[in-house]
């Protein structure tokens, strides 16, 4: 290990930063605000889907080459009608001198003192050499390599009992498979003795077969051993649906009874009665067919399914079921933890979510992939309350968080595709067939799991048209995978699948040229042309440049140079290349400071309207001419006041109405905004918001800094080469009794439950609020998202994502199943909505109130403790980081109480909060903080598990040692913090600088050196830049402890456990929450 | 004569409101998409407010104080909406605000209905007075 540890004589320097003193201040949010809760609204019959826009609008076929001159378009040689020559008109001269700020914060911040009055003088540079011993343990504060030590309180509690992991999925699957293979169509398989395992003959799917590496004989002893262990749990588990049902019919309210006086609070009444009942009715409730039928419910059970005719069969079958360990671990009591006084266990941030505990055999194939992956879709609660009253009582937010079109990681299997266009859907509710349906009548019909209607199985379902053979139904991907893609036949098309088409609207005004944006963009575009999705040579590109006039380009072969002022018809890629090479030179000497974005957009819309496509705007100047002209409206005096939200709302209605027009003609807009000055991100991001695009913001962009140019070039090129989906709609269906109520994300809501997206970007998040309209009487409910889109390859496809969740009637169980990540994503969406419609204060209060609500209900209904103050804040194990994440949310750039966050930054942060998938959102809220000077030896090394990261530190300045070097990253930025007492050897090894004084703060590129430390840090930074989904390329900043104050404040604002400005520290926040919970004001 | 005119106007406004309500329920049933709906309804928003304001103005210059006072709240409400730029239907927000819009339409419908009968009564009273 490299010893960059603290020299021993520096002990007295161990002080937190001034301004971060712990200690409770007065609570900030005194008055109680009603949190947002789903309100019961009118019952609404779901209509059948209809083609969204009338097909009559699009009669003509798409020609392979787009942009050919045609009646609807401006003929070549003519200027478009919209823009008038405005060169002669007087315009406001705007100060054009861009001073590239040192940090993305603008200069409106008053300088803050760097060091507080009590700061000890800067220590001498340590004389110790490089090879000194490892870091000395300093009492209390040295970041231990093992991460955070558990606090005495936490240690006193029983440790969290991890629910037993489901044993390797092979065994149950194998058994099930065998049953199915013996009786491919028969819904009730023949008897099968549990012990008589036969070797697997056929393998079900590629993925499943990968899991079945071991032979069945090897697995048998293991399985038999498990039988004894799991027998009683499994039997109890089998009772569960019945139990739910009985509870439901008997007294749906008795969960409110005092739960337990014992220490383990979680759902005792779920277990104890079951255990009591166990001996008396050993097999009474086991009405389960292997097809996953639910227990009998009035009206839902079909006579054909009644298995009671074969009691023997059921007996042996249920025994067999009892030995399977599938569908998640049996419900274990979720231990509760106390939070106060201990630092949050941030290293557990990665896997927080409770597993989904489905009853056995709820899916017909028992495939481990029957439920979709959490990254595609998850719910705020992994167990659904069975009544509206219970949902209200539990005060849980009920929403889905989905990213149906997310990109795949390198090691992931692609989404299985059903290519024979046999799409079986429910006649009534139009649900796609999925792993949670049941087959009845000898497999001739299937029962919809949403509305329980019986549907015919299509004749071609078991038939392979290619080989002209019967196929095994159980191998069909739609019965095995929660996420599948269907190739859609022509019924799903309003017109022939559109080809990708891109129109670039490039700003060529003075600031765009001066900042080097134009040159970088042209260069990147040139380099990326080959990567733009263009599988069948159908993709078309158009370019419009705009300052105070619009410039169109003719890409005719016969002309040597691209000719300006003519509408583009791109068939020849070389002409585009020539243009792109010449573009920067053409406008090199421009002095035009105007920008007519509105007319340019209208022209682009006109070009694309017959086909649909994508407009990509690169905007460097505030549009100030023609339609959609904007004023520089930022008013520093409004920042931090309730009026601030007016600045975050769009200034001009043009961008909204234009976005609606675009959505109608299947055009998406992406906005890349380069800000030297105020760029009105809030207004311009309207376009991507309603057309399914994305907004990128580059504050203080200057291409002469390689870091800026690199970031932009990377993101722009990723954006262009992204395999987007075109002309898409999303519809979300749910089991009877549930209704989608409100939608958040970048799309246009075209009907009560239909989301229209001209383009689906790969990694965007959507959040959907759900309401319970009817009592849920089934043991499980399903949510199905159908994303109908045209792939870049010109195929119409339907991506179906099915999620099945158990229903519960007990508040403890609901609380044990909260998914904190989905919860925080929902809260972020709601908070942003609230901030825009009301004010930022309300948004923060809403987050805090929701947290208080949750903890209050937990205290009252789960712990059963009386009202009043308690010394501890007790919280279920799965929620232990929710307060931290909530604090991170209200301290985030998008929502923080501050008068120093420029509007553009805030608007951009809000956009990101709203659109980031969970994988990006969590680090964006709660940054990862590593210490570099005392990394454990294995950190930063490549192993078989990939790159090893150093232990995550708590986000507090207490962790920062004066001689230390730290890395903090939130997916958008990476900061390297260098303390002022840093060892010169470390500067040499890491930065190739002689000492601390030789370092320069700001955007930074780490040199590549031949030292272990430098290699490790470079590896870490490289990994951080590529490990997450999304196009973002984090910029590296070097932050010196006494360097640029803005940058330093910016860095410190990520340390959310500290008290910053006037927002509470983590411990104060807990205290505040505890007081609110204790006072019963929830 | 004024109240004859008022009765006709109230009847027109009444029909307009019925049209609005029908359109909103069409939207809920997915018979119309929100863009068309907003384009269609927005044509009528200002004429409706204008007609009502004109009626109010007629009462004002005619000195029909009771009728004027009855209509005053709605005029004030309309002016408030126009000045805050909230009077137009926004296709992007329509599903979030649909229940609000519907409530408002039903309220206006009821109001115009009451007004219609009031004006009818005043018209008959005026006719009888003119006869005798």
UniProtKB/TrEMBL annotation, chain A:
The keyword Cytoplasm applies. Coiled coil: none annotated. It is found in: Cytoplasm; Endoplasmic reticulum membrane; Golgi apparatus membrane. InterPro entries: ADF-H/Gelsolin-like_dom_sf, Beta-sandwich_Sec23_24, Gelsolin-like_dom, Gelsolin-like_dom_sf, Sec23/24_helical_dom, Sec23/24_helical_dom_sf, Sec23/24_trunk_dom, SEC23_SEC24_subfamily. Residues 1-244, 267-312 are annotated as: Disordered. It holds the Pfam family Gelsolin. Residues 72-84, 110-126, 160-169 have a biased composition (Pro residues). Residues 423-460 form the Zinc finger Sec23/Sec24-type domain. PANTHER family: SEC24-RELATED PROTEIN, SECRETORY 24AB, ISOFORM A. This is Beta-sandwich domain of Sec23/24.
UniProtKB/TrEMBL annotation, chain B:
It comes from the Eukaryota. The chain crosses the membrane at residues 53-79, 109-130. It is found in: Membrane. One of its GO terms (cellular component) is membrane. GO terms for biological process: vesicle-mediated transport. InterPro entries: Cornichon, Cornichon_conserved. Keywords: Membrane, Transmembrane, Transmembrane helix. It is a multi-pass membrane protein. PANTHER family: CORNICHON-RELATED. Belongs to the cornichon family. This is Cornichon. It comes from Hesseltinella vesiculosa. The lineage of its organism: Eukaryota, Fungi, Fungi incertae sedis, Mucoromycota, Mucoromycotina.
């Amino acid at each position: 290990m490299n010893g960059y540890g603290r020299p021993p004589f520096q002990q007295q320097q161990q002080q937190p930063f001034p301004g971060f003193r712990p200690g409770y201040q007065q609570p900030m949010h005194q008055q109680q605000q009603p949190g947002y809760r789903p309100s019961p609204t009118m019952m609404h019959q779901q209509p059948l889907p209809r083609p969204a826009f009338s097909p009559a609008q699009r009669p003509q076929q798409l020609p392979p080459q787009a942009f050919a001159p045609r009646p609807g378009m401006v003929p070549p040689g003519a200027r478009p009608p919209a823009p008038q020559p405005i060169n002669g008109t007087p315009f406001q001269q705007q100060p054009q001198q861009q001073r590239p700020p040192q940090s993305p914060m603008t200069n409106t911040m008053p300088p803050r003192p760097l060091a507080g009055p009590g700061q000890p003088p800067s220590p001498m540079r340590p004389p110790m050499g490089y090879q000194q011993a490892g870091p000395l343990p300093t009492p209390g504060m040295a970041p231990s390599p093992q991460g955070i030590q558990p606090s005495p309180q936490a240690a006193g509690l029983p440790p969290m009992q991890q629910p037993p992991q489901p044993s390797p999925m092979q065994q149950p699957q194998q058994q099930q498979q065998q049953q199915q293979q013996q009786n491919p169509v028969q819904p009730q398989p023949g008897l099968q003795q549990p012990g008589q395992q036969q070797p697997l003959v056929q393998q079900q799917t590629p993925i499943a077969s990968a899991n079945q590496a071991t032979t069945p004989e090897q697995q048998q002893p293991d399985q038999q051993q498990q039988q004894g262990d799991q027998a009683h749990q499994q039997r109890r588990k089998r009772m569960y649906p019945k139990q739910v049902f009985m509870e439901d019919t008997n007294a749906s309210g008795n969960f409110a009874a005092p739960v337990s006086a014992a220490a383990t609070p979680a759902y005792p009444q779920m277990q104890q009665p079951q255990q009591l009942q166990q001996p008396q009715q050993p097999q009474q409730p086991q009405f389960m067919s292997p097809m996953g039928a639910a227990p009998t419910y009035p009206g839902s059970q079909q006579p054909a399914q009644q298995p009671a005719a074969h009691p023997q069969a059921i007996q042996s079958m249920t025994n067999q079921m009892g030995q399977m360990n599938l569908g998640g671990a049996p419900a274990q009591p979720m231990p509760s933890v106390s939070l106060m006084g201990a630092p949050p266990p941030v290293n557990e941030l990665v896997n927080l979510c409770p597993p989904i505990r489905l009853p056995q055999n709820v899916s017909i194939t028992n495939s481990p992939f029957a439920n979709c992956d959490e990254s595609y879709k998850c719910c705020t609660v992994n167990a659904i309350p069975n009544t509206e009253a219970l949902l209200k009582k539990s005060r849980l937010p009920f929403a889905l968080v989905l990213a149906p079109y997310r990109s795949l990681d390198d090691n992931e299997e692609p989404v299985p595709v059903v290519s024979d266009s046999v799409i079986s859907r429910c006649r009534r509710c139009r649900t796609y067939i999925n792993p949670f349906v049941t087959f009845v009548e000898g497999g001739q019909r299937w029962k919809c799991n949403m509305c329980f209607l019986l549907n015919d199985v299509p004749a071609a379902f078991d038939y392979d048209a290619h080989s002209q053979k019967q196929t095994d139904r159980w191998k069909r991907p739609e019965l095995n995978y929660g996420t599948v893609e269907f190739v859609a036949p022509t019924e799903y098309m309003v017109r022939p699948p559109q080809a990708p088409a891109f129109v670039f609207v490039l700003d060529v005004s003075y600031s765009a040229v001066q900042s080097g944006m134009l040159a970088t963009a042209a260069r990147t575009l040139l380099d990326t042309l080959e990567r733009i999705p263009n599988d069948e040579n159908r993709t078309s590109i158009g370019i419009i440049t705009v300052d105070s006039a619009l410039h169109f380009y003719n890409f005719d072969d016969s002309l040597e140079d691209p000719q300006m002022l003519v509408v583009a018809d791109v068939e020849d890629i070389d002409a585009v290349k020539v243009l792109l090479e010449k573009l920067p030179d053409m406008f090199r000497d421009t002095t035009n400071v105007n920008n007519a974005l509105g007319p340019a957009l209208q022209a682009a819309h006109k070009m694309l309207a017959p086909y649909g496509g994508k407009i990509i705007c690169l905007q460097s100047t505030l549009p100030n001419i023609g339609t959609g002209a904007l004023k520089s409206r930022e008013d520093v005096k409004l920042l931090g006041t309730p009026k601030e939200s007016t600045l975050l709302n769009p200034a001009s209605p043009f961008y909204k109405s234009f976005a609606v027009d675009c959505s109608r003609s299947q055009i998406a807009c992406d906005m890349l905004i380069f800000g030297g000055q105020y760029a009105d991100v809030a207004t311009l991001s309207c376009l991507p918001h309603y057309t399914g695009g994305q907004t990128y913001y580059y504050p203080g962009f200057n291409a002469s800094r390689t870091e800026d140019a690199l970031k932009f070039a990377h993101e722009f090129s990723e954006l262009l080469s992204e395999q987007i989906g075109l002309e898409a709609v999303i519809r979300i269906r749910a089991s009877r009794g549930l209704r989608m109520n409100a939608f958040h994300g970048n799309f246009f809501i075209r009907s009560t439950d239909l989301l229209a997206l001209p383009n689906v970007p790969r990694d965007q998040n959507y959040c959907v609020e759900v309401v319970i309209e009817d009592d849920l009487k089934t043991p499980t409910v399903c949510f199905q998202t159908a994303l109908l889109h045209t792939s870049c390859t010109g195929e119409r496809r339907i991506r179906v994502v099915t999620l099945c969740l158990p229903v519960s009637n007990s508040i403890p169980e609901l609380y044990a199943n909260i998914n904190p990540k989905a919860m925080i994503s929902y809260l972020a969406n709601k908070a942003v909505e609230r901030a825009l419609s009301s004010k930022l204060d309300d948004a923060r209060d809403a987050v805090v109130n929701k947290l208080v609500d949750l903890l209050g209900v937990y205290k009252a209904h789960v712990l059963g403790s009386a009202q009043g103050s308690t010394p501890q804040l007790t919280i279920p194990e799965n929620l232990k980081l929710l307060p931290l994440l909530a604090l991170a949310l209200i301290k985030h750039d998008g929502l923080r109480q501050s008068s120093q966050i420029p509007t553009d930054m805030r608007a951009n942060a809000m956009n990101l909060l709203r659109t980031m998938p969970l994988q990006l959102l969590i680090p964006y809220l709660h940054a990862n903080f590593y210490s570099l000077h005392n990394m454990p030896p294995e950190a930063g090394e490549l192993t078989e598990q990939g790159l090893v990261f150093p232990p995550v530190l708590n986000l507090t300045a207490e962790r920062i040692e004066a001689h230390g070097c730290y890395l903090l990253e939130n997916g958008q930025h990476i900061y390297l913090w260098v303390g002022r007492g840093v060892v010169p050897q470390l500067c040499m090894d890491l930065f190739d600088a002689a000492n601390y004084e030789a370092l320069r703060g700001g955007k930074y590129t780490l040199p590549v050196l031949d030292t272990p430390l430098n290699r490790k840090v470079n590896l870490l930074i490289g990994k951080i830049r590529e490990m997450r989904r999304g196009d973002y390329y984090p910029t590296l900043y070097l932050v010196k402890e006494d360097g640029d104050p803005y940058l330093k404040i910016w860095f410190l604002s990520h340390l959310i456990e500290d008290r910053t400005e006037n927002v509470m520290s983590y411990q104060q926040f807990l205290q505040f929450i505890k007081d609110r919970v204790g006072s019963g004001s929830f | 004569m004024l109240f004859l005119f008022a009765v006709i106007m109230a009847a027109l406004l009444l029909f307009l409101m019925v049209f609005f309500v029908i359109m909103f329920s069409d939207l809920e049933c997915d018979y119309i998409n929100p863009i068309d709906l907003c384009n269609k309804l927005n044509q009528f928003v200002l004429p409706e407010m204008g007609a009502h304001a004109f009626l109010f103005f007629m009462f004002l210059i005619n000195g029909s104080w009771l009728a004027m006072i009855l209509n005053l709240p709605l005029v004030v409400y309309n002016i408030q909406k126009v000045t805050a730029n909230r009077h137009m239907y926004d296709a992007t927000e329509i599903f979030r605000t649909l229940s609000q819009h519907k409530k408002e339409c039903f309220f206006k419908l009821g109001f115009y209905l009451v007004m219609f009968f009031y004006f009818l009564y005043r018209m008959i009273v005026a006719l009888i007075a003119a006869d005798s």
